[in-house]
Amino acid sequence: HLFHYILKMYKIIATINFWSDSKEWLIEHCEMLRSCGVDYILVLSQITSNYGVKDNSGHALVIEAKNSRLIDDYILFIPNLNLTGSTNEKEKRKLGLNYAKQKEFDYILLTDTDEFYLPNEFKQAREYIESKENLGGLIFQLYTYYKRRTLRTENVDGYFICGIFRVTPTLNLERPNKKFLIDPTRRLGYEAYTPYSIELYNDCIMHHYSWIRENIKQKIESSSARANIKQNKFYEEFMNLEAGSIVGGNKLIEVNYFI
Hints:
Blueprint: H1 2-6, E1 12-17, H2 26-35, E2 40-45, H3 57-67, E3 73-76, H4 85-102, E4 107-112, E5 115-116, H5 119-130, E6 135-146, E7 151-153, E8 161-166, E9 197-211, H6 216-222, H7 226-231, H8 234-238, E10 246-247, E11 250-254
Parallel strand pairs: 1-2, 1-4, 2-3, 6-9
Antiparallel strand pairs: 4-8, 5-9, 6-8, 7-11, 10-11
């Protein structure tokens, strides 16, 4: 048994929530995940957006990626248009989590195609969590990028993202996390009776290309936070953003290419 334990190879699955509004990042994102050592890539794809817009171009790329073995599998998600956009987004992520449980993966990363990591940082984070028996999940900080790869927030954002999490039967998307401000569609947690802890890991930063799009209006229309975006008249201000601009209290700066 000890010999088997020493040879244990932990497997991590990345589940990607995807629609056509971020199709320009799909291939590069999957290549990045492979560079990070992710063992299995599942794409949760859509043809119809959470708000009823039909666009098959992104799903066609998913099929090509599967045929070329860049990804391992995909699920075509059909949204319930009677539900809110954020509820559909959460239900979609649940499909990926249930898939990870059924396939008995050891760890999971919930991700979108516009989220990038430095491979060495991600691998170190993975080694860290694998070395801690009762550590359930890692919380990452992030930078947000606007308009191009070289324009980003100077400081890490005021919210966080669930990073690598240990897959257990009690891992779910229903546990509120009062310690960290996290997108409500992707708040991973464990039932209170389990021994697993969740901690902030500062040495792996997510680089969020959230506002770099070929079609920024499509991005806004498909976002689960589109009501807030429209209310704040973000699109009008977006077109004028440059280094020195202030977004949400965070100054934008020009940096070297991340990738």
